[in-house]
Amino acid sequence: MDSFLIVTKAGDAAARELGLEIAVSLRERNARVGVSEHSPDAPVRSGLAEFGNYGLVLVLGGDGTLISVARRMHGHPAPLLALNLGRVGFLAETSRERWPEVLGRLLAGDFLVRRRLCLEYAVLRGGEGVERGLAVNDIVVSRGVLARLIRLGLAHDGEHVASLRADGLVVSTPTGSTAYGLSAGGPLVHPDLDVLAVTPVCPFLNSIKPLILPADGELTILVEDAGGDVNLSEDGQKAVPLAAGDRVVVRRSPHDLILADLGRSSYFLRLRKKGFLAGGGA
User: Residue 63 catalytic?
Assistant: First the structure.
């Protein structure tokens, strides 16, 4: 690997300083380097041209920054690797203190490339598409500030699955199964699986259990009765208002999330270290 783009967390002076330090080190080893501060409000795929001339994107920030950068460069073949400046750091598992070791391995090509499925959605209103988007972690349909249940219908590949009254519904990728879906009672899903996790949020009378569905199907969520404000959120970073009668159609994106994996710890070890599984471990 001989070309890198370093993307630093927005508004983080320490991340910017570290990024410049890493850039100097890479240039001393004859690598081509760019440094950019992340723009969290930039739209999906807006960074394709910016990232076009680099072979690997090094993100200085936590999981939220990594996911936001991934959305901007969605469809680009360069893998991402994050140095963790955040707290949980399940995706951004490499600590900032280890950057000299990390650079040596990246320059030597000593890493694996992992692919994770992503989701695309369309909001249909009266048969017309009114909104489209992308999610790396999850798509959530949920009620607004009023404490009223919403009525949702769920279908898979055109077949009715269930109707439910709940606070909301979470559709998670395997990558996002450790996020909101898990907090709502959903399962942990191994990232190598091509499946979706569908988890209701506080369903009335426990009317539906969490589901694991094949990712190559089409999932439709119908807002049957809003009962107040209803919103769709993608990765917790964008909110879209929904109305009664809206259909949210969710499909697997043709482009995956591409990560550089240094193989420092297994999936189950990371789950234990981050407290998702009992047993501790280092």
Answer: yes
User: What CA–CA distance (Å, rounded) separates 102 from 100?
Assistant: 5
Is residue 78 within 8 A of residue 51, CB to CB? The reply is yes
Q: b/e per residue, 203-238, with b = 16+ CB within 10 A?
A: beeeebeebbbebebebbbbbbbbbeebebbbbebb
Q: Determine which one of 63, 138, 235, 256 is catalytic.
A: 63
pLDDT (0 to 100) of residue 86: 64
- CB-based contacts of 68, cutoff 8 Å, min separation 6: 38, 40, 235, 237
Reported pTM: 0.90
Render pLDDT for 55-70 as a digit per residue (tens, 0 to 9): 999 999 888 899 999 9
User: Edge to edge, what strands does the sheet with 230-234 contain?
Assistant: 211-214, 195-201, 168-172, 138-143, 230-234, 238-242
For residue 37, with 0-12 CB atoms within 10 Å meaning exposed, 13-18 middle and 19 or more buried, which class applies? middle
Please give the Cα distance from 19 to 22 (Å, whole number): 5
* The dihedral sign for the CA sequence 274, 188, 198, 196: positive
In 167-247, where does DSSP find H-type helix?
180-183
Task: Name 198's bridge partners.
Answer: 171, 211
